Amino acid sequence: MNGTSGARPVRVGVVGAGAWGTALAQALARASKGGEVLLWAREAALAERINQTRVNDLYLPGATIEPGVRATSDLAQLGELDALLAVVPAQFLASVIADLPDRPRDLVLCAKGIEATSGRLMADVAREAAPASRLAVLSGPTFAHEVAAGLPTAVTLACSGGREQWDRLAPTIASPAFRPYYSDDVIGAEIGGAIKNVLAIACGVVEGLGLGQNARAALIARGYAEMLRFGLARGGRAETLSGLCGLGDLVLTCSSTSSRNFSLGLALGQGMSAAQALSGKSSVAEGAATAPILADLARREGLDMPIAQAVARLLEGSAPARDVVSDILSRPLRAEQEPAA
Ligand SMILES: NC(=O)C1=CN([C@@H]2O[C@H](COP(=O)(O)OP(=O)(O)OC[C@H]3O[C@@H](n4cnc5c(N)ncnc54)[C@H](O)[C@@H]3O)[C@@H](O)[C@H]2O)C=CC1
Ligand SMILES: O=C(CO)COP(=O)(O)O
């Protein structure tokens, strides 16, 4: 049991025991002050080890898992809970959610990506796979190891069900070190998280090529302009993208080797191929799957997104990093601000 919604406690679980799912289970256990949080791991042996050793040695080895977290590899056990946080990588959300019985529940989407095969954002995927669910998006500057250690941060919790859903979810999720902020802009929240991963790869490339801190700051600002362009075209709001789930997370992941996406870019900038940089990794760098589909969507929708296009080109391996950057730098000069619509 966890949190309260009026008189009745909200029973909550986490679907996906990667680094972020595990850290979120920690945050929920702390918010519940003694209640149980069920954590679904795809790997049965991992679920057993988490329960026995209180460590997720595969995805988050540095953290000691709160006593209130119980791991299981049986997804059906989560089927009856009132609220689920979906934390499997974006490319697997549809298949995992489809295995849950469809019934009315709060489903909080925590993956940051676009489905590569369809171009769908996470809420579109979940709407089809779990039509009875009430959807929300949780996103912000949140390195898993810091959240698991109880270090403070703040996130956007965008609720499709407005304040009524927020009133149910916020007490279940919030603690002094994990502060959700209310929004009803689901589209803006999911786009911020998906696009910042692609921009973090670009910033890693700049670092790998040794282009300097000025270049990185310029890239963050121009990357943010691309995030805004895509977000506004999809009906997201500028104030959402300037908040925790957009600019906040962009600044975090574009400036730290703790980011898997930044580290992937760093390797590309240092001359590694994408295949080399990604091979043998059990952890996910979502930007690698999101960049090609984002570039494709932007092209189809007539949106100017040169940084996203450049990351997609680099990942496909058709040109070395230095040439891709040189192409970006020789584009025609333009006004910094978008013309008013
Ligand atoms: N790690 C972090 O600091 C944060 C991650 N996120 C997002 O959370 C999502 C999950 O990332 P992490 O927990 O970091 O993952 P991770 O990289 O730690 O672990 C990979 C996850 O993918 C799962 N997986 C692999 N193959 C699968 C399959 N065929 N079907 C279903 N699941 C499969 C594994 O079981 C594991 O849970 C991503 O969208 C990521 O962008 C968001 C905020 C912070
Ligand atoms: O989303 C994150 C922090 O907010 C984690 O970023 P990476 O997936 O690049 O490690």
UniProtKB/TrEMBL annotation:
Instruction: Give the first-level EC class, as a single word.
Output: oxidoreductase
- Residues in a coiled coil are none
**Gene3D superfamilies linked to this entry:** N-(1-d-carboxylethyl)-l-norvaline Dehydrogenase, domain 2, NAD(P)-binding Rossmann-like Domain
Active site as annotated: 196
What broad class describes the main subcellular location of this protein? cytoplasm
Q: Which residues form the Glycerol-3-phosphate dehydrogenase NAD-dependent C-terminal domain?
A: 185-325
Per its record, the protein catalyses: sn-glycerol 3-phosphate + NADP(+) = dihydroxyacetone phosphate + NADPH + H(+); sn-glycerol 3-phosphate + NAD(+) = dihydroxyacetone phosphate + NADH + H(+)
- Give the pathway annotation: Membrane lipid metabolism; glycerophospholipid metabolism
Is Metal-binding one of the keywords?
no
Where found, per UniProt?
Cytoplasm
Q: What EC number(s) does its UniProt record assign?
A: 1.1.1.94
Please provide the record's keywords in A-Z order: Cytoplasm, Lipid biosynthesis, Lipid metabolism, NAD, NADP, Nucleotide-binding, Oxidoreductase, Phospholipid biosynthesis, Phospholipid metabolism
* Residues annotated as domain Glycerol-3-phosphate dehydrogenase NAD-dependent N-terminal: 12-160
Binding locations of NADPH: 20, 42, 59, 112, 144, 260, 284, 286
Please give the superkingdom of this protein's source.
Bacteria
Q: Where does this protein hold sn-glycerol 3-phosphate?
A: 112, 140, 142, 196, 249, 259-261
Q: By its UniProt entry, which Pfam families does this protein fall under?
A: NAD_Gly3P_dh_C (PF07479), NAD_Gly3P_dh_N (PF01210)
Q: Which HAMAP family match?
A: NAD_Glyc3P_dehydrog (MF_00394)
Function noted in UniProt: Catalyzes the reduction of the glycolytic intermediate dihydroxyacetone phosphate (DHAP) to sn-glycerol 3-phosphate (G3P), the key precursor for phospholipid synthesis.
- Annotated family: Belongs to the NAD-dependent glycerol-3-phosphate dehydrogenase family.
What is the protein's name according to its record?
Answer: Glycerol-3-phosphate dehydrogenase [NAD(P)+]
User: What organism does the UniProt record list as the source?
Assistant: Novosphingobium organovorum
